[in-house]
């Protein structure tokens, strides 16, 4: 019976694992694993015996995948990491996402330059998924500030949604064999045509449970003041789809900013979503006052959640993989900051408390009940 | 009379060159700090490492075969870019050193 909360905290200087009982009264911290090396993605794979995975992105010696079979007490490198075929011409620059695939030992991995890899043996060997990696658009995608990265992989039955910065949202409806750009309504404020077929800077996509066809997206917003060619581009940052991602509409009205990186959905209520609005130019908390914003009606309206968070002088960023939610009946949110703090938001974000305040800059946070 | 010191010896057999392996990569070659190779060109060092120590090679070169951006290869005290790149000729007794670029953050 599942009785523990496990958090993986990927930082600029390695991976940390925090563990608590289901009361969440106290978290024990282990690590760093892959000491000194940046971790941009992690997976707590709860299919069968839980396994933890993390990317270890060494700027000197290349990419590794770390795996733990003892809930994060120890980690070992898998036998290999994703790599492009020798004659491809591309070289792996970063690993941005690791997600569970269809079969028990299948893993999917999104990398920079934007491409998808699949492992059928729990991460020991990897193969390129050509349907997206060699897509006719792929050589036209452009790097965003974080590089040309495939950062989001979401499986929904036989559908696979991918988020690429900057490439946009790509959708497979045949289990990941073929992909099409699906960006109708997704804005690209930084392009002359603000609604192109592809090339958007998608930041994160989530699929709620219990609402077939529904998706939420945090897109690259912050274009409300744009007065150049094409006119204003307000509210393109937070979006919703009700047709499996074929079309999207804005749900950003009521937020202090439509710029942000993470978006998280409640595990038991598909209408409840969370974002962290940021000031678009600095990409830090607006006015130095951090807050998570929650909608309980699918983006129709928003409420500020800030009890326990600093009231001033906080200029951190929460990155795209920096927030997650556990699956207990009254779930807790967790977010990590670029200033190395890990916060817990109990009662669905009503009350915030800092769990760890001096970690290295945090790239990614995952939570699971195991 | 002071004891007679043995003559200075090259770090490797006269027909070989030596590769110095930095500490973080020694787990890719069974902990060895030095490897002796019989090669006459820097490119052949990498080919030999790819055959014998694929993990070490992958840490030095990306999948296109290019030396990683933040890895420097020195022949004796000269950076390979100041010689003839991977085409640099090697003489018996030469020492190839693998080093990381200076960086911070």
Our count of domains of chain B comes out at 1
Please report the number of helical segments of chain A: 2
CATH topology of chain B: Ubiquitin-like (UB roll)
Number of strands of chain A: 27
**First-to-last CA distance of chain A:** 8 Å
Give the topology string of chain B: H per helix, E per strand. Answer: EEHHEEE
Strand content of chain A: 35-45%
The percent of residues in helical segments of chain A reads: under 10%
Beta-strand proportion of chain B: 15-25%
The main sheet of chain B orders its strands as 2-1-5-3-4
Q: How would you classify the helix and strand content of chain A by structural class?
A: mainly beta
Please provide the count of β strands of chain B: 5
Q: From the alpha carbons, calculate the radius of gyration of chain A and give it in angstroms.
A: 19 Å
By CATH reckoning, the class of chain B would read Alpha Beta
Written description of the protein model:
Chain A is an all-beta fold. In chain A, 2% of the residues lie in helices and 39% in strands. In chain A, the strands form six sheets. In chain A, strands 12, 13, 14, 15, 16, 17 and 18 form a seven-stranded antiparallel β-sheet that branches. Chain A has a four-stranded antiparallel β-sheet with strand order 3-2-1-27, with no helix packed on it. Chain A has a four-stranded antiparallel β-sheet with strand order 4-5-6-7, with no helix packed on it. Chain A is globular and about 55 Å long. The model of chain A has no long low-confidence stretch (mean pLDDT 95). Chain B is α+β, with helices and mostly antiparallel strands and 105 residues long. Chain B has one domain (17-100): Beta-grasp domain (Ubiquitin-like (UB roll), Roll), CATH 3.10.20.30. Chain B has two helices and five strands. Chain B has helices at 42-52, 54-60, and strands at residues 17-20, 34-37, 71-75, 78-79, 95-100. In chain B, strands 2-1-5-3-4 form a five-stranded mixed β-sheet, covered by helices on one side. In chain B, β3 and β4 (78-79) form a beta hairpin. Residues 5-10 of chain B have low confidence and may be disordered. At the A-B interface, loops of A face α2 of B.
């Amino acid at each position: 019976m599942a009785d523990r909360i496990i958090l993986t905290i990927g930082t600029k200087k390695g991976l940390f694992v925090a563990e608590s009982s289901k009361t969440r009264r106290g978290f024990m911290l282990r690590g760093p694993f892959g000491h000194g090396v940046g971790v941009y993605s992690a997976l707590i794979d709860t299919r069968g015996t839980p396994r933890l995975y993390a990317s270890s992105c060494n700027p000197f010696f290349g990419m590794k995948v770390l795996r733990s079979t003892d809930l994060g007490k120890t980690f070992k490198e898998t036998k290999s990491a994703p790599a492009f075929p020798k004659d491809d011409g591309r070289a792996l620059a970063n690993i941005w996402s690791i997600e569970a695939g269809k079969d028990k030992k299948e893993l999917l991995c999104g990398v920079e330059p934007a491409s998808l890899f699949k492992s059928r043996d729990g991460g020991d060997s990897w193969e390129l998924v050509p349907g997206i990696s060699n897509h006719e658009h792929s050589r036209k995608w452009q790097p965003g500030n974080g590089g040309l990265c495939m950062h989001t992989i979401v499986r929904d039955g036989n559908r696979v949604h991918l988020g690429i910065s900057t490439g946009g949202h790509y959708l497979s409806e045949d289990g990941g064999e073929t992909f099409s750009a699906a960006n109708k309504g997704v804005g690209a404020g930084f392009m002359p045509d603000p609604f192109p077929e592809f090339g958007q800077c998608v930041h994160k996509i989530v699929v709620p449970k219990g609402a077939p066809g529904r998706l939420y997206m945090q897109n690259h917003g912050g274009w409300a003041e744009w007065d150049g060619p094409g006119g204003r581009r307000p509210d393109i940052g937070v979006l919703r789809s009700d047709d499996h991602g074929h079309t999207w509409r804005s749900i950003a009205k009521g937020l202090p900013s439509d710029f942000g990186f993470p978006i998280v959905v409640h595990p038991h209520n598909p209408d409840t979503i969370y974002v962290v609005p940021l000031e678009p130019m600095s990409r830090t908390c607006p006015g130095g006052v951090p807050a998570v914003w929650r909608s309980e009606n699918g983006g129709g309206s928003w409420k500020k959640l800030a009890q326990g968070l600093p009231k001033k002088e906080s200029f951190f960023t929460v990155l795209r993989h920096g927030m997650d939610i556990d699956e207990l009946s009254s779930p807790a949110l967790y977010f990590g900051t670029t200033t190395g703090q890990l916060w817990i938001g109990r009662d669905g974000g009503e009350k915030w408390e800092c769990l760890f305040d001096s970690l290295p800059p945090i790239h990614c946070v995952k939570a699971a009940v195991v | 009379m002071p004891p007679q010191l043995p003559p200075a010896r090259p770090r490797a057999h006269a027909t070989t060159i030596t590769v110095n392996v930095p500490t973080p990569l020694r787990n890719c070659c069974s902990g060895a700090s030095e490897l002796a190779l019989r090669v006459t060109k820097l490119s052949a060092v990498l080919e030999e490492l790819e055959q014998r120590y694929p993990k070490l090679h992958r840490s030095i070169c990306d999948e296109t075969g290019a030396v990683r951006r933040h890895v420097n290869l020195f022949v004796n005290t000269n950076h390979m870019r100041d010689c003839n790149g991977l085409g640099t000729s090697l003489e018996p007794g030469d020492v190839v050193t693998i080093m990381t670029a200076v960086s911070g953050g």
